[in-house]
Amino acid sequence: MSVDPAVVLRIASESVTQVIEHGLRREVERVGFHRVVLGLSGGLDSAVVAHLAVRTFGAEQVDLICMPASTSNPESLAHGQLVAQGLGIEAIVQPIGPQIDLYFSDKPEADAGRRGNKVARERMTLLYDHSQAHHAMVLGTSNKTELLLGYSTLWGDSACAIMPIGDLYKTQVRTLARFLGVPDVVIEKAPSADLWVGQTDEDELGFTYEAVDSLLYHLVERRFRREPMLELGFRAEFVDEITRRMRTTQFKRKLPVILKLSGRTIDRDFLYPRDWTG
Known about the structure:
The protein is mainly α. The protein has 13 helices and four strands. The chain has helices spanning 5-8, 13-29, 44-57, 74-86, 97-104, 112-134, 144-149, 170-180, 184-188, 201-205, 209-221, 226-231, 236-248, and strands spanning 35-39, 62-66, 92-93, 136-138. It has a four-stranded parallel β-sheet, sandwiched between helices. The termini are far apart.
């Protein structure tokens, strides 16, 4: 038996968009914000979130910031500005190369992964400074595939107030992008966090998003165990690797662990919903 990703990952784009718009407005405005900000990377995910934000709040209430590093592909900035222009917004360009390069100037042993994490966290510090200065809520741009695989930098791109597309697999985000009118050049380019020269997501991960999305759908949405996955035609090594990734990166999807000393520990016994006010 084989699995057709186009079938299992099909979404009703118009309905999905309406649900996200409604939820985004509710979550932002009920805590006193009317403006949002996000980092515009030139990639698919941030372009989709930018489109959703403008549809929800209007271009005048959305701030888009491009933050190229010294190792960033110039194409990334060009594509980010293309998306912003199409939305009627002048993107803020804030290069982060100088501070990153200065920090690593006496650390020649630092590898690409370490530098990439620093870049991701530096970008988020700029977004939160902008949030403080302009009372704009920070929107995240991570998708469900990245979150399940732990393919993000803790307190970097995973840090935000709301993740509008955090429940959509990467393949579904691409479908939504076409519905929203994201430029084809952004949709069709190889996905990349652009954290170092020549980096692409699928090369770094070792598999395509389409393949892993199909597997994750059955593991997560349908709760299949290992043997049924093999019967569907997934390779044992692939199933085991993805399951291992999900388990070992669970800490990235949880609040920090608080060691219990009292009768009511936050997130353990002191449990209230996000909007608890009294």
